């Protein structure tokens, strides 16, 4: 029975089992790279190599990118894998984890898998989905061990303000907790600020090559934390999967060698597609309301409608275009619109969604 699965993540189940659309506006990745985007990929593939606590050249590449010591880096299976390892390292049954709402349900499910209780704090439409330290402070309990933040926020694409992060760090430090900041959407937006973990040892950064670089299939993720927490994360990985794939991590090293070019590619796709999405939203300002996004996703809602689910279903049924139902992010009046993919398909998909909106 699903009710008995404490770690169930309904959005992820839906994403894996939904009908296949002609045009997918429900995803959030930058358009996938081809081998032509990664020169030398064929030569980089090898089936052996030392990978006991992460492939050392990859750890050094990540550390070099962030200008930190390699002792602060752990590799993982994508950002979700990185988040999971952090929870495995830090949580005990009965601990509390603070998670933003609306939010990404694997963050809830992963915490529950370790017997933790999830406590919510809101990022509300009325305040532009801003990260509010007062709401975090009010949600704190004596058993809070971890505060989880995504920036840009999933599902709204709104970035966290630096001063808000700093204040939440102070709140966590006083409580003996840690702040996990998932930055997987950050790089493609042009935000050049240092990783959250540079703000002090109370912070842990997780990210990957997935959302900003078009390399989702590599599952190349990482954590950045204090050396002490990094050691605990490495020991958690001993239990979870031992090591990463040497093939994927060798290719990830090659990706880091070309990371500036991959990032330029991703930002070019992002820039032209965001212009299309912004124009679409402006065209339908009488029917939709939204908070401006900095990421590859935006989270509009239908004016005067409590549940956008029937609209999302109609778009799929009549136009074969997928949107992300807001109910999966605990905001049913909204839908998540992703625009990181192929520009021609994004343009056509938005045209088809417009057709349905014009009939309402």
How many domains comprise the coordinates? Answer: 2
Shape: globular
The Rg value, from CA coordinates, equals 20 Å
Q: From N to C, what is the helix and strand string?
A: HEHHEHEHEHEHEEEHHHEEEHEEEH
CATH class of the largest domain: Alpha Beta
Fraction of residues in H or I helices: 40-55%
Largest sheet: 7 strands, mixed
Give structural notes:
By secondary structure, the chain is an alpha/beta fold. It has 2 domains: 2-32 and 261-359, Aspartate Aminotransferase, domain 1, CATH 3.90.1150.10; 44-259, Aspartate Aminotransferase, domain 2, CATH 3.40.640.10. Helices cover 40% and strands 16% of the residues. It is built from 12 helices and 14 strands. The chain has helices at 10-17, 41-44, 56-66, 78-90, 105-113, 133-139, 162-175, 227-240, 246-257, 259-283, 309-319, 343-359; strands at residues 23-24, 73-77, 96-101, 117-122, 144-150, 178-182, 203-208, 220-224, 288-289, 297-298, 301-302, 321-322, 324-325, 335-338. The protein has a 7-stranded mixed sheet, with helices on both faces. It has a 3-stranded antiparallel sheet with strand order 10-14-13, with no helix packed on it. Strand 3 (96-101), helix 5 and strand 4 (117-122) form a beta-alpha-beta unit. The chain is globular and about 55 Å long. The chain starts with 9 loop residues before the first helix and ends with a helix. The model has no long low-confidence stretch (mean pLDDT 93).
What is this structure, in a nutshell?
This protein is of the alpha/beta class and 360 residues long. Helices cover 40% and strands 16% of the residues. The protein folds into two domains: 2-32 and 261-359, Aspartate Aminotransferase, domain 1; 44-259, Type I PLP-dependent aspartate aminotransferase-like (Major domain) (Aspartate Aminotransferase, domain 2, 3-Layer(aba) Sandwich).
